[in-house]
Amino acid sequence: MDSxxxxxxxxxxSFELTAPRNGFDFDATNTSMSDVEDKYMEKxxxxxxxxxxxxxxxxxxxxxxxxxxxxxDGLSQSTGSGSSQSATEMGGRDLELDCPDGGLRAWLVVLxxxxxxxxxxxxxxxxxxxxSYYEQTLLKDYTPSSIAWIGSLQLCLVFxxxxxxxxxxDLGIFKLPFVAASALLVTATFLVGECTQxxxxxxxxxxxxxxxxxxxxxxxxxxxxxxxxRKRGAAMGLTAVGSSVGGTVLPIATRKLIPAVGxxxxxxxxxxxxxxxxxxxCFTLARRLPPKTVSxxxxxxxxxxxxxxxxxxxxxxxxxxxxxxxxxTYIDISAVTNGVSPNYTFxxxxxxxxxxxxxxxxxxxxxxxxxxxxxxxxxxxLAGIITFAWPFATxxxxxxxxxxxxxxxxxxxxxxxxxxxxxxxxxxxxxxxxGMVMSLGALGxxxxxxxxxxxxxxxxxxEDVGCFAGSMLIIAGIFMLATRHLxxxxxxxxx
Length: 495
Known about the structure:
- This protein is mostly helical.
- The protein has helices at residues 33-43, 46-50, 87-97, 104-119, 121-124, 127-136, 144-159, 162-170, 175-192, 198-227, 232-284, 301-306, 308-323, 326-337, 342-345, 347-370, 372-389, 396-416, 419-423, 430-459, 463-488, and strands at residues 15-20, 61-70, 76-80.
- Strand 2 (61-70) and strand 3 (76-80) form a beta hairpin.
């Protein structure tokens, strides 16, 4: 070997990234190896060897020094004044990028989530039948507003536990709370059949049922975010079919079984249906991504500060829940007060939920191409208009038309409601963000139906009720459009 040859020196792979001081450079978080090579060639180009001073940097740029180290397994790890990632975190990010978007295991998750929504949201949306039945029989001495508190407490607790369940989900704790909540829901349904006093219904059908449903519904939706990305809308649409089936079958079963076997055995049969339905997700649902510790606590107030679109969207969800479930709660009893036969009126709840099935399927097929808000904002406006018209429908045929139209539009909103939440932050925080949105929406759900009941008692009719609930939906649609504008910076575009 020629002794005059010099030993090759270690190549310097260090370089500097620049980011604007007045904003966050999204592309900087996705620096690929080709970007690294480009930076290296720019640094070591012949022109740089001749002129090491370079051009002066803009005063608006922030310099971040980055050095690359070669790990034993061939992975490059960046260190410097920016944040560093461990190999485990990088592996988790690889799993996020490598989303299955299909396959047997992923579709089994969809199947399990559909059954979980059947037993949770589907059961909850059957409340209108119980509202009407209690007003006429078991709790006829109580006002509609008082009885509505049972359903509204149930609705509130469907979404309020999302704060806890979402945080537990992000930390990797999923299956044990899910199984425990399933046991609570089945037990509470058995106990409802034994209730005779108002406070007993509040505890069993309001508090216990709501908590059980809440610990099931939110985490089961978050699981989909681990298995689907490009086809997330389709997966959400198929999942929402489960709640529509439950909301269609359970009200009819309830009203048909009560005259045949009595209220107690009706609730026992419903409990066995829920037991079977919840056994499917207990076996099929599973997380895919490793748990991640994210800062901010149960309720991440920093998310509101850092993301104005997220803040605006959460506000819109509160208004949405103030009005969305009013028609579903009172359409049965409003038909009775207008002289429609009680033997038909209970079908209106099932018709509404059956029609929502179509809306949810259509949402799944459309939102991946159009954008979630581009689709659910217009249907939210339509739901508001139909709510305005509902009190003026006084015959069986006109109320059936209202049930069909409202079921479709509300179904699209329910199916696509969570999808923008997935897009307004990182997937590692998906459980907590979902929980935050649902918990804030729960506040609207808690007060919406009782306010409508109080308005009904004060006015003696449902015209003012429809005006209140319809206005809430119109305002919610406006906030959705404002969210899109904040994200895109313009009034049109896919989101």
